[in-house]
Amino acid sequence: MRNRYDITAGFVPLLDSALLVVAKEKGFAETQQLGLTLVRERSWATIRDRLAVGHFEVAHILAPMPIACNLGLMAPAPRMIVPMALGLGGNAVTVSSALWRDMADHGAADPLDARLSGAALKSVISRRAGDRLRFGIVHPYSGHNYELRYWLSGSGIDPDREIEIVTLPPQDMGDALKAGAIEGYCVGEPWNTFGVLERGAQIATVKAAIWKSSPEKVLGVNGRWGDSHPEALSALLRALYNASLWCADTANHEELAVLLSGPAYIDRPVELLRPSVTGALRTGRHATQTVEDFFVPHAKAATFPWKSHALWFYTQMVRWGHVDHTAMHQTVAGNTYRPDIYRRALKSLGVAMPAASSKVEGALQVETPVGSSGTLTLGPDGFFDGKIFDPDRVDEYIAAQKQA
Fold it and tell me: Entry's PANTHER family (predicted)?
C-alpha cells in the first residue's frame, strides 16, 4: 500500500494552471494517495517567496523563473527544480484597438502571422514622433518577456530603445490597456480574451506563431523538498500526467472551461475561458480564428521538461543583460530542468517519452514521429523568423544574437 502525502501548491489564476486544478478536482491526485491543496496567488513574486520559505512545496510557475532563482538573480529564492512542464503555448500579444488600426494600415491582417504583424508594428513605430509604445508583461523572468522581445527584435524593433516594457499582474492588463496606461501586453489566458471581449482590444499575434510548441508554465519544486520527498514528487507527476490526458480530450473541454472559471480558481465567466480551451480564439470583437495548438496540455510531449527549453531561456537572459554567459551559468540553467525525475516517475505508467533530453528547437517543420520509449510525435516547433537553436551550440547562438 502506498504512503499518503500532503502537498501544497501555489498557482496564479490562468488557463495553464489547468493540470493542477484537474489533478485535484477530478481525483487524479487522490488516486495517487495525494492530499493536494491549491492556493491562489495574485503575483509571481509571491509564488516565488512562498516557495522559498516553505509555504508551498511546488507551484505553477513561469518557465524561466526557476532558472533565474538558481542563477541568483532573485531573492529570496529557493534552489528549484523543474521535473515537469504544464503544457505548451497559451500566450498572446494583445494591443489596443487604436494601435491595431495603425498596424492594419501598414499591412497587419492575420494575428497568426507573427512576421506580418511584426513588420506592421515596425512601420508604425518608425512613423511615431519620439514617444515610445508601452507594453506590459507579467515578470522580467517570464516567457512573456522573452518571447515578446524575441518577436520585437526579430521584426527589427529594439525592445529597449523603441518600446517601454513594464510589469503588471495578469489580471490588470486589460484595464491598463483600456485606461491608456499601456498600448499592448503579452499575457496568458483568459486575459487576452478579456481584453478583446471586455476592453475592445485586438490580439496581434500568439505565442504559437512566435515559437511553435514552446513552453510556458512549469511545475516549480523547492529543491530541498524534492530531494527529500522523491516518492511524493513522483506521485504528483503521475497525477499531473493523467490530468494532462483528461485536459487534452476534446470531450472534456466544456467541463474544463467551467471548472477553471469557478470562484476558487480563475473566477471569471466561462465565456472568457471557452475560446482558449477549445482553440476557437477570439482575436477581435467580431473575429474568431481556430488555433489548434494555442494551448497544448498533452500532445507533442507537452509535459516533458526539455533541457533545450531551459537553455533557450538562458540564452535570452544573456541576450538581454540579465546574466553573464559562463560555463557554470549554462550548466546551472540546463540542470534546473530534470527529465530524469520525469522519466523515473512515469515509468510505471508505460507512457511514450523522448529518448533524448534536449532537441534542436525550430528544426521540425511538420509533425514528426521520433524515437522514444513508445509512439510519440513532435513538432512543428519553428521560430517565426526561421532560425533554429541547437543546445549543443549555445556559444554560437549567443554570439549570433549579439550581432543581430
Answer: ALIPHATIC SULFONATES-BINDING PROTEIN-RELATED, BLL4572 PROTEIN
